[in-house]
UniProtKB/TrEMBL annotation, chain A:
This is 2-oxoisovalerate dehydrogenase subunit alpha. It is found in: Mitochondrion matrix. InterPro entries: Alpha-ketoacid_DH_E1_comp (IPR050771), DH_E1 (IPR001017), THDP-binding (IPR029061). Residues 451-477 are annotated as: Disordered.
UniProtKB/TrEMBL annotation, chain B:
GO terms for molecular function: branched-chain 2-oxo acid dehydrogenase activity. Its EC number is 1.2.4.4. InterPro entries: THDP-binding, Transketo_C/PFOR_II, Transketolase-like_Pyr-bd, Transketolase_C. Gene3D superfamilies: 3.40.50.920, 3.40.50.970. The gene is LOC118422807. The lineage of its organism: Eukaryota, Metazoa, Chordata, Cephalochordata, Leptocardii. GO terms for biological process: branched-chain amino acid catabolic process; response to nutrient. Heterotetramer of 2 alpha/BCKDHA and 2 beta chains/BCKDHB that forms the branched-chain alpha-keto acid decarboxylase (E1) component of the BCKD complex. The branched-chain alpha-ketoacid dehydrogenase is a large complex composed of three major building blocks E1, E2 and E3. It is organized around E2, a 24-meric cubic core composed of DBT, to which are associated 6 to 12 copies of E1, and approximately 6 copies of the dehydrogenase E3, a DLD dimer. This is 2-oxoisovalerate dehydrogenase subunit beta, mitochondrial. Its cofactor is thiamine diphosphate. It catalyses: N(6)-[(R)-lipoyl]-L-lysyl-[protein] + 3-methyl-2-oxobutanoate + H(+) = N(6)-[(R)-S(8)-2-methylpropanoyldihydrolipoyl]-L-lysyl-[protein] + CO2. It comes from Branchiostoma floridae. GO terms for cellular component: branched-chain alpha-ketoacid dehydrogenase complex; mitochondrial matrix.
Amino acid sequence: MEIYVNILKAPRNHVVELAKMAAVRSVFRVRSLLQQGFYGFYRNSASFAVRNVSIGSKISISPGQKRQMSSQTLDLEEDKPQFPGSRSEFTKKLEFITPDVYNGIPVYRVLDRQGKIIEADQDPKLSKEAVYDMYHKMTLLNTMDRILYESQRQGRISFYMTNYGEEATHMGSAAALNPGDVVFGQYREAGVLMYRGFTLDQFMNQCYGNAEDAGRGRQMPVHYGSKELNFVTISSPLGTQMPQASGAAYALKRSGKRLCVICYFGDGAASEGDAHAAFNFAATLECPIIFFCRNNGYAISTPTSEQYRGDGIAARGPSYGMATLRVDGNDAFAVYNAVKAARELAVNENRPVLIEAMTYRIGHHSTSDDSTAYRSVDEVNYWDKQDHPIGRLRHYMVNQGWWDMEKEKAWMKQARNEVMQAFQRAEKKKKPPPSELFYDTYREMLPHLQQQREQMRKHVAQYPENYPLENFEKDRD
Amino acid sequence: MAVCGALVRSGRLSRPISGRNSAFIDSRFAVVKRLASALSYVPETAPSDFGETTKMNLFQSINSAMDVALANDPTAVIFGEDVAFGGVFRCTIGLADKYGKDRVFNTPLCEQGIAGFGIGMAVMGATAIAEIQFADYIFPAFDQIVNEAAKYRYRSGNLFDCGRLTMRAPCGAVGHGALYHSQSPEAFFAHVPGIKVVIPRGPIQAKGLLLACIKDDNPCIFLEPKILYRAAVEHVPVGDFSLPLSSAEVVVEGKDVTMVAWGTQVQVLREVCNMAQEKLGVSCELIDLRTIMPWDSETVIKSVNKTGRLLVAHEAPLTGGFAAEVASTVQSECFLHLEAPVERVCGYDTPFPHIFEPFYMPDKWRCFEAVKKLINY
């Protein structure tokens, strides 16, 4: 709660200016959620209008009229700024607001690095089974990553992206959601999908682009999607999922289903214009959405120090009028608590929430990247050995007496076997028929595409030796 | 798009701050009338089986189409910059009052946001009708349209799609719009498999085609020639009806020269048909392409095989314009029937100019000259 305390201690004009900078009221809403580090704010001008009703003569507009017209209320007796775009007070001092006016937003955590609960009242009190489930899937994901990464190195799949070091952000958040909540991911959220029940076979089929791949082999590996698991298919452009997620949340709100959207993105994607669009639309249109930033320190090679100059992504939340929290992304319980509380805010109050999970990308960006070119092995080793999310949850389980080396060994062996078997099954399957190239461009197969499909078939039939037909299933008609 | 906002508010083209500013509306009427004098709009008649009609200009017919869509489909919503008070071109007037602020609402000034938001709504199965205030400002949304909307179904193997999305944008020349209130960007989007691009030539067409786009299961871009918003008036069916997509229409039948156009240019070529008949005794067949992508090549090919001559005209610049695609298909499909090389009359390869607009436009005199060239080849 450092920021909160600092604001209260700061000179009044600092508070006002800070609030102005952040486009929030200088009155902070103290909620029970503040215990978990949430910053809530009075946001809309409606409350502003109400607060001024009893003061002096003014030009006010009835609620009925307000629906059609500007909602501004002019207060002509008080010497306050009447600009429609601000909600603050005048100052006589010429003072710039500098970024160091407050300390960085604190990082909420539940477990310390040794896996001990720091404050008993923050213990999510998850059952042994629930923690097992999280741990199993974190380690299974880790195992799958190792095998698929290696398989790309051997030339068996074309591309891969590991999730090393970010497993707690996936499982912690996924566990706190309702299965009906809709996920708009970036590309490094395989664990969320795994938590929801995407099978190893489904992962492998997609990476191989074989005939069982729901995406029909059209996308690069790791571009997963599942309609039944409410996980919208991944696309490569960064940040594009964000305004879409806001729109989807608006549609969910209108449907009255009491569900929300969670939108994952990285510290790099947050620099895209789409991120700004998404935050601003979600805030102004009151969308039930959780923006979940995985701040893992790097966008490919670009460190966060070259990505932004402010206090991370979380600092941007209040300026959009969003409740915001920064969380230790290597602490599965903290992530769980954060998303659970955020979900309540989003669904009960139809408002966006921003969570910035601080973590570290232990793996290379992708199989096309070698991160030793831009960061030290010591740095990576620290996160891999000293502050790993899997290690921390394992410490907790050992502390509880739920887990030991023997169980670990047996489970890791089983996990590896399961992954290898699924891998081999996927590798044996053929690719979908070549005509799949033309389907799903439009809802219906349009005449010009039918024509082009026929041209392709004819050409391939004429020169079969030039095309890898043996790897593909035969055309469906 | 701060500049856009400033222009909308201060420029001559549209400066509505308040819908009650009748002085403004009157002055804009005058502007449109003055410009429209150069363009003679010939009203059309709707087929009688479309039911009762009433007199509407093009913005009113667009409004009527969206009224029908909102009434028939409780998931349908309309959003964009300034749409809540009726839109800077008045296309959404009255709809927020009728259907509520949660169904007809303003968004922040951010085109990529509008496109992305609409895609997300459509992915959830809602009918999303997004307005981009001017087609000139659609480019911040280009990534969302090209990389997202167009590829949603394909990349997910039909698990997810945004087919319920329609994006409307006013396009084309009006006489004083200069670089950023005049463009016709259809060719950019014609290069994108997965979306449909539609442009109407008048009020009846606008309503029928817009409703077709809204009902279509593919994301559609609907470009509205803004000079016709007030200049084009005809009796439009008041109820629900659709006109077919990807179906060109022979607007004037003829035998000597085929002329292909869309949007406002159809009205220009209609005049050229008369000029050619009167001054040259040449009979022109005029085709409105209506859907630019995926386009109806069959109707065009059939006509050119009959006439042996083709003129394609559009306001957008010549190079890489959609006329090039039409010409290319025709040379490959009609080669032995052609009596003359295909003529293209288009905007020049410059930005859309302000005071030079009369010289830039593919006007009836340039098109008429091209007809002469086709005949005399």
